[in-house]
Amino acid sequence: MLSDAQKAFYQDNGYLMVEDAVTPQQLARLQEITYRLIDASRDVGESDEVYDLDKGHSRDTPRLTRIKLPHKRDPCFWEILAQSQVTEVLTDLLGPDTSIITSKLNTKAPGGGAAVEWHQDWAFYPHTNDDLLAFGLMLEDVDEANGPLMVIPGTHKGPLLSHHMNGVFAGAIDPDDPLFQRDKAVTLTGKAGSMTVHHCRTLHGSAPNVSDRARLILFYECASADAWPILGASSYIHELGQRRFWADLQDRMVTGQPCLEPRLEQVPVRMPLPPAPDNSSIFKTQESAGARSAFS
Length: 296
Ligand SMILES: O=C(O)CCC(=O)C(=O)O
Description:
The chain has helices spanning 4-13, 24-40, 70-73, 75-82, 85-94, 121-124, 242-252, 282-288, and strands at 15-18, 51-53, 64-68, 98-108, 116-119, 132-138, 149-151, 164-165, 168-169, 186-188, 195-199, 204-206, 215-224, 253-255. By secondary structure, the protein is α+β, with helices and mostly antiparallel strands. It is globular, with a radius of gyration of 18 Å. Bound molecules: 2-oxoglutaric acid (AKG). Residues 104, 106, 116, 121, 149, 204, 206, 217, 282 line the site of 2-oxoglutaric acid.
């Protein structure tokens, strides 16, 4: 699927835009399921295991920050990752054996949908090596106004910035960090069906949605099978115990086989501890830890 030039661009810059990552039929199906899920949130009064509600959510006006783990909500979300052109992009960049860490459908509502403060995904879940990436499949057009993803090229090869604030892991950098070169930011806009790719160490964030259209991006975060998680991140997997961990790992394999020999690389790690008062999502982590906003 990816040309050598695209692979080299990703290796050099730590991000990539892939146009027409899904077919029009696949896109239409994903949109239909997504709008059905959003509609079903009308009956939900507080955030739960499926929905993260945004301020102002009501039966009449559903406002969500996120649908959690979409690949567990409908088989179509799994098929797009495991049996489509998206799968080819995954194996082109991470090799034949890959697993999913998590998925989320960030649904920035029109007129204010929350910003995501600048961060490196790696700070949330360090592994034995950094062959991890995130896909962001655009389910509607993304432009400058509806809160596009922004990345700082090349930061995947740089240091891990501090994500601690007020003595806890805040899931965001300090906007005044001298290592934060905001003037280098690239904004990733595109047509529905386009997909962003960013490396787990690439610094990224996104502004609030100031348009009158929803910003729907389906994120899949994946790892090479030889990247093993380091204990201490805020993941359910650490609670599973050995037998359930193994069963869960089989379910999370997207392509190929689990790898029992972790590849240990010299990577910068700082454990995301102690946790923020509410670490149930990135939005809650950043808010409850008192992360300073780069967007206000
Ligand atoms: O929704 C976005 O714009 C960014 C999401 C993100 O970076 C995250 O959830 O880790």
